[in-house]
Amino acid sequence: MMLSDVMEDYLKTIYRLQQDSDNRIKTSEIAEELAVTSPTVTSMLEKLEERGLVDREKYRGVTLTDEGETVALEVVRHHRLLESYLTEHLDYDWSEVHEEADRLEHHISEDFEERVAAALDDPDVDPHGSPIPGADLEPPERSAGESITQFSEGDVVLVEEVADHDPDVLSYLADHGVEPDVELEIVEVAPFGMVTARPTSTDDTVSLPEGVAHHVRVARPAEAES
Fold it and tell me: By residue range, what is the domain housing residue 193?
């Protein structure tokens, strides 16, 4: 099935939104994520529905069909393998790889994908801690991590994943040592959502405004090891 890059982007976006929701994905959510208008989204969803890639209910939103999910998982696999390759072998900063992978993910062959995976020793996660779907395109198991905003002062947590969509957020987090596998102690949670944390390997603290903290998924160390 030949699909346009835009169609694949929609399927990938719906897949990503479904990871954080038990409900159907609304047109407005997709529009906000892709920075397009709701009528534009509606038009594209009609095309995807005609191809059997989404299940759409008027006023309730959409979910991916099995076929749509398979397409989305392949695009996600390409994207996250490319992010890993760019970081590990081409010396890209982790804040630069998302947009580069976005451009390349639609245009690599299965052979190229296999070679990239082999060169990386078939990793389970990308540089941001996001799980990479396997070659079988089965949905990967997501970590038990939650947003750092769900924890309290005095908690010690392990960073498991950070969202890769905003390079400014990624640069800020990297500059302050907030990366996957880093242990943090939560020093303060302000009423307006600001989280102040300290990497346990340093004496320095980092302030995470609510908009930044939302991008950081963590788990208690014992949970991460289980």
Answer: 146-225
